[in-house]
Structures are given as structure tokens and as C-alpha cells.
Amino acid sequence: MLEPFAGRFGGLVRTTKGSSQVNRIMIRGSSLAVRAFAVAVLVIGVGAAYYATSNKDTRTIAVEQRTPVYDDRVDQPNTLADAKRAGSTAQIGAQQQKAAAAAKAAADRAAAAARAARSQSRDDGTSGAGLDVPTTPIDCMQYSGNRRIGCSFLPKFGFSTAQMACLEPLWTKESGWSTHASNDAGTAWGIPQALPGSKMKSAGPNWRDDAATQITWGLRDYIKPRYGSPCKAWAHFQANNWY
Fold first, then answer.
1. Phi–psi pair at 194, nearest 5 degrees
2. Residue 167's closest CA among 207, 129, 133, 201?
3. pLDDT, tens only, 27-84
4. pTM for the whole thing?
5. Which residues pair with 46 in a beta bridge?
6. What CA–CA distances, in Å, run from 117 to 71, 176, 231?
7. Which terminus of the chain is more solvent-facing, meaning fewer CB atoms within 10 Å of its CB: N or C?
8. Cα–Cα distances in Å, from 81 out to 85, 92, 133, 135?
9. 115 phi and psi, to 5 degrees?
């Protein structure tokens, strides 16, 4: 009784031992499967992370590529053109200034030449009129009236009586030696035709009627400072029909 039971028990025991081995094999297989699954999950996770990182870098690069980048080479042609235009403008300005300076210098030279010509004409007493300056003194007694007064006043103001050869025709043209002579406008007055006549106040209060006052002003205050001598004033009159 015991032996069969024992045999059966023993078989049971053996069966139990076989089941344990199977269980252990299954457990080991399950562990391997779990481990493989974990490794797969880990690999998938690493791959996903790498992909996410790579995708992020790609997006960053794409964004950076879309971001405009300033390149001064793009503006270089415009910059060069602006520089050329600025240079041209500066050159034009410099040329204009140079031309203006040259024109001013030419005008100054012309004015200086004109002044020199006027000075020379006054010095030679002709002013281009071809007048021979008289040198022989004149006897004033050959004149009468206001002309005699005019001739006698010449030495008083530093002129030779020879200048009467010029003064006589000059004031004959201007006024006929009349103390009340006036121009058409009524502004010039007297023997020397002072314009206006009131200028002759510097020679005396009776400038309207007195020949001596008018002749004094004409020789001392007008002809001498303006022309230098009656003959130079007469030469100017012959060239311009006024003095």
C-alpha cells in the first residue's frame, strides 16, 4: 500500500519537480522577454529623443535660414554709387568755386586796369581826347567879367594860368559862365553847374548869385579833388560830354 502510494507520490513529486523546471524556464523566458521589451522601449526612447533633438535642430536651422542675414556686399554697389555721386558733387562744387574765383580775379584785374587807365588819363591831362596840355601862362587881363575872375583864381588853388585854355571852353559849354545858369531839370546851378546847386554852400552863403563863390567851389571843391586840373576835367568832358 505504501509503495504504490509512495510511487504515486514519488511520481507526483517528480511531476512536481518537472513543473518547477518548466515554471523556472517560463519565468526565465518571461524575464528575457521583459528585458527585451525594456531594451526595445529604451531603444525606442533613445531613438525618439534623438529624432526629437534632430528635428529640433532641423527646425532651428530652418528658422535660422529663414532669418534674413545682413550682408554688406549686397549694398556695396549702392554704396559705391552714392560715393561716386558724392564725389561728383564735390568735384562740381570745387569747379564752380574755382570758376567763381577766376571770374572774380578777372573782374578785379579789369577794375584795376580801368582805375589805372583813369589815373593815367588824369595824369596826362587828355583822357583820350587828344588834348595838348597848355604850358604857356595866360594873361588874365585879356578876359573880362566872370572869365577874368576864373583866370585870376587859378594860381590861388595851385594851377597855372595856362589851364585857362581848358577852363574857359569847359565852363562855356556848361553854363556860358553865367551865375544863374541851370540845366533843363533845374537841379544844376551856376558857372560850374553844381548838382545840386546847394553844394556850393561850402564856398559861401551867397552861392546863388556870386561868381567868386561859384568859381571857388568849382576849382577848389570839385575840379581839383575829382580830376586834378581844369585840363583833365576838360578832356573828360570832351570824351563823355559831362564832367
1. -65, 140
2. 133
3. 555 666 666 666 666 667 656 655 555 555 445 444 445 555 545 555 555 655 665 6
4. 0.49
5. none
6. 69, 31, 17
7. N
8. 6, 16, 71, 76
9. -65, -40
